[in-house]
Amino acid sequence: MTDSDPTGPSLDDSAAASSEDRRYRDLRADFDELGAGHHVALFYESLAAQRRVAAAFVASALERNQRCLYLTDRNEAAAVRGTFRRDGIDVARRIDAGDLRIRSATDVYLDEGFDPDRIIETLGNASAESHADGYDGFVAVGENSWSFRTDEDLDDVVEFEAAFDAHEADHPVTTLCQYGLDDFDETAIAKALRTHEHVVYRDTLCRNPYYLPPERYADAASEGLNATLMLEQTHGLARSRRALERQEQRLAVVNRILRHDIRNDLNVVIGTLSQVRETDALDGPSRARLDRVDRVANRLVDRAEKARYVQQTLTDGSVERFDLDALVADAVATVRDRHPDATVDVDGSAGVAVLADGHLKTAVVELLTNAVVHGTADPPSATVRVARDGATATIDVANPGPSVPVADRRALDRGTETPLEHAGGLGLWLVKWIVDNSRGSLRFPETDPETCRIALELRAVE
Predict the structure, then answer these.
(1) CA 399, 402, 408 angle in degrees (round to 5)?
(2) What beta strand segments (E) does 291-380 contain?
(3) Would you indicate the residue range of the signal peptide (predicted)?
(4) What is the pLDDT of residues 247-281, one digit of tens each?
(5) Hey, CA dihedral for 182, 183, 189, 195, is it positive or negative?
């Protein structure tokens, strides 16, 4: 079959189908991670999309040994079975085994009139029966369009959702309640949003920021709710959270490689260089080249160590109270131990305390190290001053030499790097992120063109 064959699918159709299949595989994986006992609402625009989400939900539950009850209304049972088969569910076998039951929602909800207590009891009994039969859970998937055939007000149906959410049971029921966006008005959708902790919208499982626990739902005002805006914001938050989680996962992998694999390999290199240096076969130029390689290797190990602190500042955002006298003294002692030829003076106020990120000492050590390594004084020297002005405490590190380049400052201020503007490695970025976690500021005071100054402004406390 050629591309021009009118009876075959186009390349665009194939790409769209592949993209759709990938979305539903991702959604299925999200349902696997969600686990049992949750109350989920699906808001859909077409019956085909609704059936595919329901299929992913049911397939996930069956795979985890949960009995499933599907309640049809707008969809014919045959259409539901067809979608389930297409998405890999052996419908006939599952029904014969008792794993899957497909019934009319009207029979379950309205057979004896709408009675919320009876419905909750029925679902609870079904869950208990499922556990007695050896299943690990019970799942109910219902098309909520049945609610248009009850004499009750829609508020009563939504209140039933809240009451079901509050129901305590030895064997909780996992549910997927399905709402067609063309069937329910804005107010009804908004109220349904408030009664479900998780929602599916535009093929995305979202944690719902508008969810209200049952004890709060009854007292909440419903006027002026914009369901479309609520759904779009919920979807946007879920997508952003997912992107952030992926970014953090990738950063954790890169950090592990930097901190562990590369550092270990470099330690082998440094150890071998040390052994070679002890031989007598090296002439002067060769020994100089060896020393240069050793310096570069040690610098890379230092950067890998900084990467470890970067990861910690991202994962451990604890804020602690610090006595700056003790903290600065400790940081100065660390730098003097690493650079015994350097002079580090301490000046300023005593008795100043701050609230800051738990890695504040690492930031001060980094600034002092930067001062003695990159300063122009011989021997190296630096001064650290502590001051307080009202609610702000300042740690000011200065050394002879040029200021931090404007391009580096711009990159730090913007929070991103470009090929021509960077902050000279991880050091200043590490300081910035620790200060950001402390709700403080990183400053570059310019009072003397021959002096480099970097200041940390933090929240002072008594």
Answers:
(1) 110
(2) 319-323, 343-348, 353-357
(3) none
(4) 766 666 666 666 667 777 778 888 888 888 777 77
(5) negative
